[in-house]
Amino acid sequence: MKFLLSILFVLTTLTLFSQQKKETNSYPPVFDSLISHYEYYFGEEQPLQLPVLHNGPTYKLVLGQEALHLSLTDTVLADTQQGYPLSYSVIFRDHIVSLFEPGKFYCYSLTTLSRNADLENKLNTRPFSYHWLLNNQLVARSGEDYYYFATDSTWKPVKHPMIPYSTPKLFEDEMYICYSSCSGEWGGTLYFYNKKNKQTYYTEATCANTVIKKEGKYYVLAHLGHMEGFTTLKMIKRPDLLPQLRKAPGRNDSIKYAGWPGNTIKENTYDSTIIDLMGVQFFSTFTINNRTVYLIHDDCRTFLAEKSGNTYTILHPLFNSALYTHEPVTTEYASAWLVNMDFGRIGKDREIALLLIRNNKITRINWGRLHKF
Q: Domain of life here (predicted)?
């Protein structure tokens, strides 16, 4: 009798394993590592019921039946030998333009990532300490002065660009320049500088990483990794109806801590909330193959997913790594998207890597060395 029971147990185990293996194999091979990761961390507590990887009260993560057809490249640019960039890189004249110690620009072709010595020589006529792309012009600070790179490929003086020093631009259109501050669990602030009336408007955003304009409305994606982490996506119809700064930032002001003296941050100034989730972080959103995707971080893995109600369908596991970042910035350019990524334990608040998204190709550009973050 014991022998028969043992045989029955073995057959039952083999059947369950075979079914689980068959279920796993019904998904594209690109998901194998991601499935194994979730099985390792959660399989003993509660066996995975694929395609579901997470099924909580507020959101669900599921595997897609098909993966996005992406070309992934991991590359290291180590020729600067000057640590990490002084400011977040931008795309200018079809090149990634980055600024390194002691104030020197490096320019990499979007198509080949090879350096353009001619453009570098024209840019490096003086040492610079920070740079932005504003009004489609390369703007940089040298000493206490600001310059823009003119069409004749020379630097010309420009007034203070009305974005605080050492602050990346988050978004820009014909009406606003948008930037933000982040103080971690103490909160963050999103600022809209109005180019027409020269006023700055603000609202709470902890902590904004992407601003996208659709049909005249501004969508603000924010995340924070404190404790279990959280993510929000909120919409603003008219930034000029937000509270107005009574004390605008000066040319040397730092906005590392949210708000200035005399300004009160108000939380309930958004027109609607589209996403409000705990326990998961969305680092970015952009379009690829005409589909809106989110760069989602969950359980030490970061992947691309598509939203449908409260269900997020994973379309690609990317590099099968955490790909973690604290204060990323996503910018849409004419021919590409660029995601600037920092990581506090490596480069503090400096950019240590980039995601370059062009058509169906995603390139992770690591500064100095391949970062396992």
A: Bacteria
- Give SS3 for 247: coil
b/e map of 185-219 (b: 16 or more CB within 10 Å)?
A: eebbbbbbbbeeeeebbbbbbbbbbbbbbeeeebb
Residue-wise pLDDT for 320-373, tens only, equals 999 999 999 999 999 999 999 999 888 888 999 999 999 999 999 999 887 776
Q: Give the whole-angstrom CA distance, residue 92 versus residue 150.
A: 12
Q: What are 12-59's pLDDT values in tens digits?
A: 444 444 444 445 568 999 999 999 999 988 766 678 899 999 999 999
Contact indicator for 99, 86 with CB cutoff of 8 Å:
yes
Looking at residue 352, its amino acid is: I
Q: Are 181 and 255 in contact (CB under 8 A)?
A: yes
Structure tokens at 346: 């490596």
Pairing, β 311-316 against β 301-308? antiparallel
Predicted TM-score (pTM) of this structure: 0.89
